[in-house]
Amino acid sequence: MTEAEWLACSDPTPMLEFLGGTASERKLRLFAVACCRRCWLFPAVLRRALEVVEQYADRRASKRQLASVREQLRAADTADFSYKLELRAVIWSSVLLGKSIDISNWARSADWAAEAAGEAYVFETSVQPSDSEIERERAAERSEQCRILRCICGHAFGPLAGVSPSLLVWNDDTIPRLAHSIYDERAFDRLPILADALEAAGCTDAEILSHCRGPGPHVRGCWVVDLILGKE
To answer: Hey, where are the domains in the chain?
Structure first.
């Protein structure tokens, strides 16, 4: 995959395959969760499960907690088709544990979660859709998932530029404090403010500044925020 293909891709599956072992387990989990979070009709039990998956990705929940959530989800059953799709998406977000699992399986799990979440989103937002409408909505949602993946993984071509230590201590640590608030509060509307602060501190990296000022979507795991906070 070329950089131009990465930027234009409208299906996350080849993008995830291309990432191979370069994307961390954390980023793949956060990608899966971000796809699931677009399904706003998820029942409360599934939303709580997503919270645990996300906490686990950031080492704020234990393997035992994640395993417990996984087993609860696998025990759940319903005749409702949309719920089955939602359930499958969350299960694939949470199912993989341990360092014995290789990164290609993490990527595959993230892709399966995204696919199920996308199908659930289509059925949530459409009322008795025709086959052509389903295909159109499915394609649109997969394209949106690509934008999410680009937010999380950046351009995926070569190492990302680092953030100068001088930027991190500028104006009484304003930049990392702002990045922490954006991450913890999901306040991605503050990314343009972060760009302004970076620029005032002396940042001239056009890719960083344009991403912060771009239309998004922006999600937890955003590569610029991660770069500032030292997250992998």
So the answer is: 3-153, 165-229
